[in-house]
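Project standup — Tuesday

K.O.: blocked on the structure for the chain from last sprint. Re-posting the sequence here as requested.
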Amino acid sequence: MNTSFWITQVLNGLSFSALLFLISIGFSLVCGLMKLVNLAHASLFFVGAYVGNEIQKQSGSLIYGILGAAIITVVVGYLLERFLLYRFHGKPLNLVLLTTGLMMVFEDIVLAIWPVPVRARAPAMFSRPVEFLGVRFPSYRLVVILIGIVFTVILWLIIERTKIGAKIRAGADNEEIAMSLGINIRQIFLITFSCAVLLAGAGGAIGSPVVALQPGTSMEFQTLALVVCMIGGLGSVKGVVFGSLFVGIVDSLGRALFPSFSYFTLFMPMAIVLILRPQGLFGRRLD
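H.V.: unblocked you, prediction finished:
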């Protein structure tokens, strides 16, 4: 195998990693702060993908598609958290069953509106491949990588360098102490959950020309988001970045080199990490 093969697969992995980051960071923060295992999170990513693609086709603008998808998923996410999910705070088994059911509901809604797989297209200005590192590579995938880097920097600055980020980290470390210090945990919960679903919806619209838009795919992405969080550690931006890079690149190389063992190459490292460090590589053990 020549150098161009490895470069192409790594670039494919990086573009996939950027999308995994947009899904997994919200899932990780919600789990770490709210102790809410939302197995319907990836479904909101695909709702954003379908909605964003439709808006883009009608308006001819990717920006409108991203904004429309983000707004709709935030509204849906707010309603879910405000009137349904919050009622089961502290009841993980109930939440797992509930969000699994919600995932199936979203799947059926998508299937009813879009009964056949949808082929989303990249914007015309990014429709042609470009020469990059000696290989011809789809220009839109390079844009996705750049967007992933920008979101990573912004989120890291918010979580690590702002007052709201400090409150989120305080609530994730110890909810009771944070409340005793005057932090409105309910408000922090709502802000965190809204940001999580916004990222999922916007990420879906961004990734719609890259991923396959067909019913049932959200389960695969939710599983990958779980792997990312288990490897990197819940509630850690650094952990999600590392986990997304690892899963994206290993998945790309595994499918190309060992298609029959592609899942083994993902889940075996995750199992080893959980055995040696149950909280993930960058997660903190809270005793």
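K.O.: great, moving the ticket to review. The mean pLDDT is 89. DSSP finds eleven helices and two strands in the chain.
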